[in-house]
Amino acid sequence: MIPVTEGTRSVLLEGDSQTIAFGLSEIFVELQVSARRSDSDSRRNVKVWATTRTFGDLELLQTHVLHGYFSVIRSEALIDASSSNEFFIVCILNGAVTLTQESRTIAMSSSDLAILDSTRPYLIDVKNELDALWIRVPRHRIEGRLPASVDILAQRVDGSTRTGHLASSLIRSSLSQAEKLTESESLRAGNAILDLVSLSLDVTQTKGESRQRQILRRIQNHIDLNISNPNLCRGSIARRHGISPRYLSKLFEKEGLSVARWIRLRRLELSRQRIESHHANTTSISEIAFSCGFTDVSSFNRAFKKQFGATPGSLRRGQRSAY
Predict the structure, then answer these.
(1) CB 135 within 8 A of CB 60
(2) Could you please report the per-residue DSSP string of 226-263?
(3) What's the confidence (pLDDT) of residue 320?
(4) Do the Cβ atoms of 60 and 8 come closer than 8 Å?
(5) Is 0.85 surpassed by the pTM of this model?
């Protein structure tokens, strides 16, 4: 492992499938690797150069496969033994790869984007050289932007046109400028990336969506619509939807969050969006905090800084300087 700069580390992974699997599992999540060598390539080991760096509350993981035909597998058994509960956005910088998740298989090439869920099995087929950027994203940062996350897994976003091109271009630029950005700038750039990627996805609900997930999405929408109510809680939400508080908790357990934690994160996320909106420049920080259901400005400021790495006031000042 070679330290590069604060918040950044690089490592060269080289060897057989087991060695590569161990190295990738240390960097990403628990994974298996299955090599597929031709006769002419049988004596060559897989070689992967990986660099990771923090980027606000996200993490950028760039992998460059120097050579090797292999598959990366996230199996049910590995998921059962794992504590990982996050998404990965992948942007292909150069080369080609095939991804499979939720019975959907896509072929990706340079500039294309897709999202994988670490709590569901997936398969990645790598063909020789590949340069890719993987963005580790906390679950609530994506689910808070989308109505039905299961529908967007392994969905190819064309990075050569429309909003897909904007998202891909911003991701590439953020990678090249990551070490030059301040923490506040990284947070804001990360928000812009997530907004653009979400905008690029087809979030049409499928007929196969489970009833439990439909109920969960309806409840999450209800929370957003009533976020200004400081008395919003597990009991009131359960009564409103005709279910027991225990069943409500089980719905959210599958998301890796308690009901109270989800409400708090949505309040913080919505307040951030309103603070960053130039249309709300005449609205005070305290008004925004109260409109998102906080009852104490001091505790709001502390929670906001802990979540986003910047105070509401500093984020607003930085946003104003951009206009």
Answers:
(1) yes
(2) TTT-TT--HHHHHHHTT--HHHHHHHHHTTTS-HHHHH
(3) 53
(4) no
(5) no
